[in-house]
Automatic annotation (TrEMBL), chain A:
Residues 5-253 form the ABC transporter domain. The lineage of its organism: Bacteria, Pseudomonadati, Pseudomonadota, Betaproteobacteria, Neisseriales. Pfam families: ABC_tran (PF00005), BCA_ABC_TP_C (PF12399). One of its GO terms (biological process) is D-alanine transmembrane transport. This is Amino acid/amide ABC transporter ATP-binding protein 1, HAAT family. GO terms for cellular component: plasma membrane.
TrEMBL record, chain B:
One of its GO terms (molecular function) is L-leucine transmembrane transporter activity. It is found in: Cell membrane. It is a multi-pass membrane protein. Keywords: Amino-acid transport, Cell inner membrane, Cell membrane, Membrane, Transmembrane, Transmembrane helix, Transport. This is Amino acid/amide ABC transporter membrane protein 1, HAAT family. The keyword Magnesium does not apply. InterPro entries: ABC_transp_permease, BCAA_transport_permease. Belongs to the binding-protein-dependent transport system permease family. LivHM subfamily. It comes from Formivibrio citricus. The chain crosses the membrane at residues 20-37, 67-85, 97-116, 136-162, 191-210, 230-251, 271-290. GO terms for biological process: D-alanine transmembrane transport; L-alanine transport; L-isoleucine import across plasma membrane.
Automatic annotation (TrEMBL), chain C:
It comes from Formivibrio citricus. Keywords: Cell membrane, Membrane, Transmembrane, Transmembrane helix. Its main location: membrane. InterPro entries: ABC_transp_permease, LivM-like. GO terms for cellular component: plasma membrane. The keyword Ribonucleoprotein does not apply. CDD domains: TM_PBP1_LivM_like. One of its GO terms (molecular function) is branched-chain amino acid transmembrane transporter activity. It is a multi-pass membrane protein. It is found in: Cell membrane. The chain crosses the membrane at residues 16-36, 43-60, 66-85, 112-135, 141-157, 178-197, 227-249, 261-290, 310-328. This is Amino acid/amide ABC transporter membrane protein 2, HAAT family.
Length: 254, 297, 362
């Protein structure tokens, strides 16, 4: 199995607090991997370490055979890593459509002169990104809101817009931080189907954080369980379910 | 340059630096709590000077009483400023509250031009402050000797308040995390008001001492010292009281010593603070004694 | 199909309306130019210069969300560069009485346009250097660092006797800034900024303003984009400075004190941070009001009494206005909204046609 992403002994300390200790993840191309654990376990911090928002205190992150430790987030995105945020971070004053368009800026490769002078070369690119944006909005069922302000959407729709925006960067690897948060059980189940669908449609590898183990059991190939920053278990959903440490961590907290 | 001259310059720099430090503390405390650059702080300093002037020259009360009244009134003024200009915007974007601070500063300056007259006024300096003393061959005006002493005493009191009293503990809690402090049932508004009161009182004392040192009042006199003291606070590490003092002293030294040793740079004196700022921020973006406060993602 | 047609119709209508408005605008300019006295014309020209200043400050503060207070410094760079490049050697010799001007500069003399552009380029270059250095800093440090920079520029101008004539300033500059130059520049720059902001670059700027962390995660090179926006903004401020120099015909370092930046900030805030329309309207209104309210500084007849002149009352009015707007109507006149013919139609001033359609190629 060739791995797309590897973290090697990644640690992160905030002052005296060890938010992540010895994270060793191995994600193969095409996998859907779950990252679970109680609140404050270090799941979001792990995402931030891999996507370049934080620099690891020690350890290495390898993506597609390349060491990306300490690279800037935009450069990592350029290599094909995209993400959504747990606390939604849409571009508030911009329309739903513009939110998806911005995410294509990097791949448009338009220079400022052709863009301001509206040269034919630019207009062609602009047409292309609009078409793609509409297609992505179609995918997440938000086309009728294209011209609405992003923040006017309901919570669930904002989460879907975040996914569309992340897809617009043309990722190979997609990180979803609690995509089902705030959704009702029905919506959550639909979301899991949707995740399977986009994986196949866009040839993605997906790592998703989820609070509720049951929800992701069905879609994940393997899972990592964090508690107080430490990986207390990893394996297939069946193995995880039976692991005494996991049961303890979950019963202890919830 | 002989040792005598050096000593003379050193004493002058210490005096100016202490004055900067006193004003810088007000900036650092407000910033620590509200993450706000209180652009109007320099104008509060100016108001302190003017109130003392009017006490002595218009109401003919003794200087010490005029000073005391000026400090009290300026403190009230600073607290009122926060109520009117900053509190309504507490939850607005940072840029709005920064603009409000600039607007407040602008308004106070223009009001001062209208009410106090734009022409400079000579501040009446009591004999006690103006007298020159000779210590070890160094000439020191009474006021220049007094400034470091007053600053040191006030600093000691302030550190006691912040580190040893319940109010001080609440202040530190608010500056670490305002929402968490609110959850712990700390009356944030009260703490903010107290912070502005302390900062404004220090600015008033600074303004009066400034007027005693440079006895010339103008409505715009707060702008430059205000900016420089904010810079001192940033250089020292904003949010840290010790940092503000360090930054103030450092700035005083840089300004006077550079001019003393390189007289040809005298014309550039007002630019030193800004150059110091940019250099320090590039080398240590959080200031000399500042802590890193990254955003949680 | 139906929606597409209406949309084309609307587009055609808008194009006609824009063309009509442009023709009427030009006609008005021409009429004003021959109709009004010199004093009124001066104010009218100043409006145009302030439009450029407000728009350029809005680009960085409103559209990119960075709080920069260095505009006065960039204006000074543009003003001095343009003045020195365009003055004749005789004028320079007449000005530099304390110390002669540097020999290299004595004999350069260029027409207005290249001088203006070089002034803008130099301001832009300095903005670029400053941006690379300071835009890594936390956002509020940027305010103080840019403000400080603008003061450094002023101190340098005051002391560089052989280049700038120091605090004496430069007098008797040719009055190049005619109505056509002022409004021509304002229109070209407005057009440029509208096109820029509506392009993918404008979207990138706004994304940084709205959420820097998300922008970076979406592949926007945030630091580079900030530097770009800051450089453009500085260059435009430099051009406005050049226009201002040849409008006033006299410049000295004191004019470029950082309070000048606050005047421009006032215009931007009143118009709406993040609205081009707002900045334009506000620049014109504030400039005219500044003149119209001059009477406040003179003796006032209140009916029951006549006050002596109170110099400064006018500025009290403007600073109070700024405070009131910031506290009670943060979004200013326009918020982040822009003028469009459609918005006129929506409030009933134009016949209503094409509906905003959800789908379709834009
Ligand atoms: N920027 C930061 N500064 C300080 N502590 C942080 C920061 N980010 C996260 N933490 C801490 O790290 C721990 C893990 O947080 P997080 O990764 O968000 O948990 P999870 O996503 O699993 O709920 C928490 O204790 C949190 O308070
Ligand atoms: Mg989390």
């Amino acid at each position: 199995m060739s791995s797309l992403l590897q973290t090697i002994d990644v640690n992160k300390k905030f002052g005296g607090l060890s938010a992540v200790t010895s994270l060793n993840m191995d994600v193969g191309a095409g996998d859907i991997i779950g990252l679970i654990g109680p609140n404050g376990a270090g799941k979001t911090t792990s995402f931030n370490l891999i996507t370049g928002v934080y620099t690891p205190t020690s350890g290495k992150v390898i993506f597609n055979g390349q060491d990306i430790t300490g690279m800037k987030p935009h450069a990592i995105t350029h290599l094909g890593v995209a993400r959504t945020f747990q606390n939604i971070r849409l571009f508030k004053e911009m329309s739903v459509l513009e939110n998806v368009l911005v995410a294509q800026h990097m791949r448009m490769g338009a220079n400022i002169f052709e863009a301001t002078l509206r040269l034919p070369s630019y207009l062609k690119k602009e047409k292309h990104v609009h078409e793609r944006a509409y297609a992505l909005l179609e995918e997440v069922d938000l086309v009728e809101h294209a011209h609405a302000k992003a923040t006017s959407l309901s919570y669930g729709k904002q989460r879907r817009l975040e996914i569309a925006r992340a897809l617009a960067t043309e990722p190979k690897l997609l990180f979803l931080d609690e995509p089902a948060a705030g959704m009702n059980p029905q919506e959550s189940v639909e979301l899991m189907d949707f995740i399977l669908k986009i994986r196949d449609q866009f040839n993605l590898t997906i790592v998703l954080i989820e609070h509720h183990m049951q929800l992701v059991m069905g879609v994940c190939k393997r899972m990592y369980v964090l508690d107080y920053g430490v990986t207390i278990a990893h394996g297939t959903p069946e193995e995880i379910q039976k692991d005494p440490k996991v049961i303890e961590a979950y019963l202890g907290v919830e | 340059m002989d040792f005598q001259t050096f000593l003379q310059q050193f004493v002058n720099a210490l005096s100016l630096g202490s004055l900067y430090a006193l004003i810088a503390i007000g900036y650092t405390m407000v910033y620590g709590i509200l993450r706000l650059i209180n652009f109007a702080h320099g104008d509060v300093f100016m108001v302190g000077g003017y109130l003392a002037f009017f006490g002595i020259s218009s109401f003919l009360i003794p200087w010490w009483l005029a000073f005391a009244l000026a400090i009290v009134l300026t403190t009230a003024f600073g607290v009122g400023l926060e109520r009117v200009a900053y509190r309504p915007l507490r939850d607005s974007p940072r840029i709005s509250i920064m603009i409000s601070a600039i607007g407040a500063s602008f308004l106070i300056e223009n009001l001062a031009i209208v009410l106090f007259d734009a022409r400079p006024k000579a501040f009446p300096v009591a004999e006690f402050f103006a007298k020159n003393y000779v210590i070890g061959g160094v000439y020191v005006a009474g006021i220049s000797l007094l400034i470091p002493i007053v600053t040191a005493v006030l600093l000691a009191v302030l550190l006691w308040i912040v580190n040893r009293t319940k109010t001080g503990m609440a202040m530190r809690a608010v500056s670490t995390d305002i929402d968490a402090a609110r959850l712990m049932a700390i009356d944030v508004n009260r703490i903010v008001s107290i912070t502005f009161a302390i900062g404004s009182a220090l600015a008033a004392i600074g303004g009066i001492m400034w007027a005693l040192k440079y006895p010339r009042l103008e409505p715009l006199m707060g702008i430059m010292p205000g900016l420089k003291c904010f810079i001192a606070a940033v250089v020292g590490g904003i949010g840290s009281i010790a940092g503000a003092v360090l930054g103030g002293l450092l700035l005083g030294m840089v300004e006077l010593m550079t001019v003393a040793f390189l007289p040809e740079l005298t014309g550039y004196k007002d630019a030193f603070a800004f150059i110091l700022l940019i250099v320090v921020l590039l080398v240590k973006p959080t200031g000399l004694l500042g802590k890193n406060q990254g955003e949680k993602v | 199909m139906n929606t597409l047609l209406t949309q084309n119709d609307t587009q055609r209508r808008d194009r006609m309306l824009t063309l009509g408005a442009a023709v009427i605008g030009l006609g008005l300019l021409f009429a004003f130019d021959s109709m009004f006295d010199r004093f009124t014309m001066q104010i009218f020209k100043l409006c145009a210069i302030n439009v450029i200043l407000a728009l350029s400050l809005n680009l960085i503060n409103g559209f990119t969300g960075l709080f920069s207070l260095g505009h006065a410094g960039f204006m000074a760079v543009g003003a001095y560069t343009c003045a020195i490049l365009s003055m004749s050697p005789e004028q320079k010799e007449a000005n530099f009485v304390l110390q002669p001007i540097m020999p290299v500069l004595l004999n350069v003399q260029m027409p207005f346009l290249p001088s203006l552009l070089i002034g803008g380029l130099l301001a832009g270059f300095i903005g670029w250097v400053l941006g690379v250095v300071t835009l890594r800093l936390r956002d509020d440090y940027l305010a103080i660092a840019t403000l400080g920079f603008s003061e450094i520029i002023r101190v340098v101008l005051t002391n560089a006797q052989t280049i700038t004539n120091g605090s004496l300033g430069l007098k008797g500059l040719p009055r190049f800034t005619t109505m056509w130059w002022a409004w021509g520049s304002a229109i070209v720059i407005t057009l440029f900024l509208v096109l820029l902001i509506k392009s993918t670059y404008g979207r990138a700027f706004k994304s940084i303003r709205d959420n820097e962390i998300a922008a970076e995660a979406m592949g926007i090179d945030v630091l580079n984009m900030k530097v770009l926006s800051f450089t453009i903004s500085s260059a435009l401020a430099g051009i406005a400075g050049g226009l201002l120099a040849h409008y006033l015909t006299t410049i000295d370092p004191k004019q470029f004190i950082f309070l000048k930046t606050f005047d421009i900030l006032l215009i931007v805030v009143l118009g709406g941070i993040g609205s081009i329309t707002g900045s334009i309207v506000s620049a014109i209104v504030v400039t005219v009001l500044m003149e119209a309210l001059r009477f406040l500084d003179g003796p006032l007849n209140l009916g029951f009494m006549v006050t002596n002149g109170i110099p400064g009352l006018r500025m009290v009015f403007f600073s109070a206005l700024l405070m009131i707007v910031v506290i009670f109507r943060q979004q200013g006149l326009m918020g982040t909204a822009e003028f469009s013919w459609n918005s006129l139609a929506r409030i009933g001033l134009l016949p209503k046609r094409g509906q905003k359609s959800g789908k379709g190629v834009e």
